[in-house]
Write a structure and sequence with these properties.
alpha+beta, 11-stranded antiparallel sheet, 10-stranded mixed sheet, 29 strands, 22% strand, globular
Length: 781
């Protein structure tokens, strides 16, 4: 009951008095605001027009003109960790989110399970009378809870949200997304040739949720967390939006940095005299070479044209998504809700350098531990942004869009952590079109929303003592002077071994790049910046103030111990096969059954890659019990997409097995005629005989029909993953984007026969490390 029953109970209901209010949920106070939190991915301050950038963001500009633009708002430098702080108001390691869900390891700060002591804000708002909705990216479901049969206690509905529609994991194909609704996976509602794009679909779903609640509970306030796939790779956009930026970035990323800094200063977003940092500011050996920037002058004409086009696609993706947010804002205005809606429009980390110095037409190669080929990329330049590519721009644009700061996403320099934030609330903020320079962090957003809504964090929740919020409310800044003092005192940073701490206007950072593979943290060189006067961290003052450095180092260690930051992990997973294998051994995997066999059935949901039989870098067999007829065709099993995967299917009277190695043509195809109608076992057997330069497995792949080997071919198989997330293993169909061009454009469901079951057998390799798998499983408990 909401409160104690105050009615009257007698023997006869005629003599009794009911009390409905004892059973109805609480209602929010009259006049309580709605809250809309729009969270983009991978965007540096210098990218967007409200901050002086070339990417036009009309909706964000509209909100900035009607509210406030923050110049010193910070994040964790990575998506899952920042998003965890926006869920709970606690630091990312204390949430178990030192890193993204997909790279979780079995340590307290790294396991991706938010503890019960860190109750999500949505639970508090729902309990207080708000409707709560989450639309878009959800990068905070633990990797071991992604499957259809797993617990859903970390899915949005158990985290305080009434509804969820979006995708689980770090990214998804914007043309063929892997979608989930509430507590289950679903198919996308229509296809790209019918006008589908994820950003549009998400806005449609958000509008439906808001309209539903207003037509039945018109006085009920709501909280909507809107998390588009933009601007995370793959950068996908309608062609008309890409074409709007033709030629806009032809001068290159170094010229862009020189151009945008004066604009940022002129708009009052940076102090006069702010200096531009170096394009490659870190000494050789202190960071991963994949994060280096190639000088524009050293590129040939073809490379410049391709790099410019990659920026054009990114810009079109960003603006198109802003237009979808604009549809939501338009609805709020038309329905009279805009005035009393607190809108927070921001990004979760700096621009992404994960495209490598050359950019990529298939970002999936990163997860396969395989390098990009510049010449292959050049062949795809006219396809960028379309369903044919899974593209990402080069590191040079990451540096440009994070101007004037050092580095970009994953680094705890300002380039990774100082991000755009606009807040608009016409009813609650008098200021219009003003700038705020107070230092704040993503942990402060929850405290701010709770303060605005008049909701307090209880000492205990569901019987569990609560960790206090790590954030402080920003509401004082709404009508404070632009340069007024901040209420924030200290904020630590750590990402993949790169460490930093800000305290009272000073910041110390280790000259130790993330995922650099260096180790030896005790000997790190610490840099010191007086950010109160040096916003871009251009001048290292460590030699002049050694006592301040020691003070901040000690403060960082104290914060690290308080927040479960240790042990530090800087494993270099790209370009360092040993570190890559070490990481792969630590990440979550489904424990291998003693038999080494996994059995799957038709009529089931796709199995997320990290929970499916792991065929990467090992020998394997796949055997399918099927019934065939004269009309049989379709997919028996498929895992992955056109950018990497494998599939066994029947088409045009042939049984085909395709291994698509990271989308690199040609596809490896072995085929044989379909057997006579009846019961058969169709299967393949791959034998790993050696490894290639990048640890990819190489060996013969044999196709079998019943007991007979009918075809054989040598193939390469990936060591890492087909994708970061989504595109899981499917039985009887291919979800999302097709693995093979032989049946592209449809689910190509198995028909004209029956699939009994499909068995994956990796026993020949499984026994080598089954003990390690079991130990890893136990360590998660």
């Amino acid at each position: 009951m909401t409160r104690e029953f105050q009615g009257k109970i007698e023997l006869d209901v005629r003599d009794s008095v009911s009390d409905w209010d004892a059973f109805l949920p609480p209602t929010a106070p009259e006049g309580s605001p709605n809250v809309l939190l729009v969270l983009y991915d991978d965007t540096g301050q210098a990218a967007w027009s409200p901050y002086g950038g070339r990417i036009q963001m009309p909706t964000m500009e509209r909100l900035a003109a009607n509210g406030l633009t923050y110049t010193q708002w910070h994040t964790t430098a990575l998506c899952s960790p920042t998003r965890s702080t926006l869920l709970t108001g606690r630091n990312h390691h204390s949430n178990g989110f030192a890193t993204i869900s997909e790279s979780s390891t079995g340590f307290p700060g790294y396991n991706s399970h938010i503890p019960a002591s860190n109750v999500p804000m949505a639970s508090l708002l729902r309990d207080a009378g708000w409707a709560t909705f989450w639309v878009g990216k959800n990068h905070n479901v633990p990797i071991d809870e992604w499957t259809a049969g797993a617990s859903k206690k970390s899915w949005p509905l158990a985290q305080g949200f009434d509804r969820f529609y979006g995708f689980i994991g770090g990214e998804t194909n914007n043309w063929y997304p892997s979608l989930a609704e509430d507590n289950h996976y679903i198919d996308q509602p229509y296809l790209p040739e019918q006008g589908y794009h994820l950003s549009k679909d998400l806005a449609d779903q958000a509008l439906k949720m808001l309209r539903d609640v207003k037509q039945t509970e018109p006085d009920k306030p709501w909280y909507l967390w809107f998390c588009p796939g933009a601007n995370h790779a793959p950068h996908h956009a309608p062609q008309e939006y890409i074409d709007k930026y033709k030629g806009v970035f032809d001068d290159g990323y170094e010229a862009y940095r020189e151009w945008v800094l004066p604009r940022m200063i002129e708009k009052g977003l940076l102090p006069e005299g702010t200096e531009l940092t170096e394009l490659n500011p870190m000494p050789p050996g202190t960071f991963s070479e994949t994060d280096a920037v190639r000088p524009w002058a050293e590129l040939n004409a073809e490379e410049r044209a391709m790099f410019s086009r990659m920026a054009e696609v990114y810009a079109g993706f960003s603006e198109y998504t802003d237009a979808q947010v604009g549809r939501i804002v338009d609805y709020l205005e038309e329905s009279g809700q805009l005035d009393n809606t607190l809108i927070i429009y921001c990004a979760d980390n700096g621009a992404s350098g994960e495209g490598s110095p050359n950019g990529s037409v298939n970002e999936g190669k990163i997860f396969g531990g395989y390098p990009d080929d510049v010449q292959e990329n050049l062949r795809m330049v006219d396809k960028l942004g379309s369903p044919d590519t899974y593209n990402h721009y080069p590191t040079g644009w990451a540096a440009a869009f994070s101007t004037p700061y050092r580095m970009f996403k994953r680094y705890v320099y300002q380039g990774g952590v100082c991000d755009p934030l606009v807040i608009s609330w016409p009813k609650g903020i008098r200021a219009r079109g003003e700038v705020r320079n107070q230092y704040h962090h993503s942990t402060d957003i929850v405290a701010t929303i709770l303060d605005v809504c008049g909701v307090e964090l209880p000492a205990t929740y569901n019987g569990v003592e609560q960790r206090p919020l790590d954030g402080v409310p920003m509401t004082y800044s709404f009508d404070a002077p632009a340069d007024g003092a901040t209420t924030k005192e200290t904020q630590y940073f750590e990402m993949f071994g790169n460490r930093g701490i800000w305290h009272d206007g000073w910041k110390a950072v280790t000259e130790h790049g993330p995922v650099s593979g260096r180790g030896d943290f005790a000997s790190d060189t610490w840099q010191l910046f007086h950010t109160e006067v040096d916003r871009s961290e251009a001048h290292d003052l460590a030699a002049e103030h050694p006592d301040k450095v020691e003070e901040l180092k000690a403060l960082w260690l104290a914060e690290a111990k308080r927040n479960d930051v240790l042990p530090l992990n800087d494993l270099q997973i790209i370009g360092n096969p040993k570190d890559f294998e070490t990481f792969m051994s630590m990440e979550f995997k489904v424990p291998v059954p003693p038999s080494g066999q996994y059995t799957y059935y038709p009529g089931t949901s796709e199995i997320p890659e990290r929970s499916a039989a792991n065929t990467h870098g090992v020998s394997y067999k796949v055997l399918a019990e099927v019934e065939t007829t004269a009309d049989t065709e379709g997919v028996i099993f498929a895992h992955g997409s056109r950018f990497g995967g494998h599939s066994l299917f029947v088409k045009d009277g042939q049984v085909h097995y395709v291994y698509n190695f990271l989308g690199i043509p040609p596809e490896n195809v072995v085929s044989a005629p379909v057997p006579a109608p009846g019961a058969h076992v169709l299967g393949v057997s791959f034998t790993k005989e050696r490894t290639g330069q990048y640890r990819e497995a190489i060996g013969p792949l044999a196709l079998y029909i019943d007991d007979e080997k009918v075809a054989e071919q040598e193939i390469h198989t990936v060591l890492g993953h087909f994708s970061l997330c989504g595109e899981g293993l499917c039985i009887g169909y291919d979800s999302g984007d097709a693995v093979s061009k032989l049946y592209e454009g449809s689910r190509f469901e198995y028909s004209g026969g029956e699939i009994v079951k499909v068995v994956f057998d990796i026993a020949d390799d499984a026994y080598v490390d089954v003990e390690a798998h079991l130990a890893a499983a136990m360590s998660r408990d």
